[in-house]
Automatic annotation (TrEMBL):
PANTHER family: RIBONUCLEASE P PROTEIN SUBUNIT P40 (PTHR15396:SF1)
Gene, per the UniProt record: Rpp40
Gene Ontology MF annotations: ribonuclease MRP activity; ribonuclease P activity
InterPro entries: RNase_P_Rpp40
Pfam families recorded: Ribonuc_P_40 (PF08584)
GO cellular component assignments: multimeric ribonuclease P complex; ribonuclease MRP complex
GO process terms (BP): endonucleolytic cleavage in ITS1 to separate SSU-rRNA from 5.8S rRNA and LSU-rRNA from tricistronic rRNA transcript (SSU-rRNA, 5.8S rRNA, LSU-rRNA); tRNA 5'-leader removal
Domain of life per record: Eukaryota
Organism listed in the record: Rhabdornis inornatus
Protein name per its UniProtKB record: RPP40 protein
Length: 177
């Protein structure tokens, strides 16, 4: 209709360009990390943590919540699940922007190269967030914002190239395919 053509002419006249994604790197030192076994999603006491425990821990790390479990903290008394191990250095890279699926596949492939020599990491993760107020989520349903606008998936890739895929959506959204 007329509205669509007006918008098109506006965009072409103003030559609006896609913003380049913003990339930030940080190094986390002496980070407590859950011990994971690729073939054990439920976890076993004193052997490995479950997928749910990992997901919760990852949320704390990505939001830079302290894992000290100090009673004086008003923000969080969360601590890393057991069993865990202290990693001297962990790298966190955040890419913010509109990223097409092909680029995500490329990122996954590049991350898997990290398991080449020297074999330092046992596992790594790639988390992809949709915008909280995105109009669509998975399938063909509208994305229900309601409370938190959850709309994400997370790959956990192991050294033997086994992987876990975790998905989270809001209560009013369709489940992913």
């Amino acid at each position: 209709g007329a509205e669509g053509s007006t918008l098109m002419s506006y965009f072409s006249k103003n030559q609006i360009q896609a913003l380049k994604p913003k990339i930030t790197f940080s190094t986390l030192r002496d980070l407590e990390c859950p011990v994971l076994q690729s073939n054990d999603l439920q976890g076993k006491p004193e052997e490995s943590c479950s997928t749910e425990e990992l997901f919760e821990w990852l949320g704390a790390v990505l939001n830079q919540v302290s894992l000290d479990n100090t009673s004086s903290s008003f923000l969080s008394t969360y601590c890393c699940p057991e069993p865990n191990t202290v990693v001297e250095k962990a790298f966190l890279c955040t890419i913010t922007g509109f990223i097409i699926p092909e680029k995500i596949i490329q990122l996954l492939e590049q991350l898997c190269c990290y398991f080449g020599e020297p074999k330092l990491a046992y596992w790594l993760t790639l988390t992809v967030h949709g915008f909280a107020d995105s109009p669509v989520s998975w399938r063909e349903s509208e994305h229900g914002f309601h409370k938190g606008g959850e709309n994400l998936y997370n790959f956990v890739i192991f050294r033997n190239l086994d992987y876990w895929l975790q998905m989270a959506v809001g209560a009013h959204d369709d489940c992913p395919p």
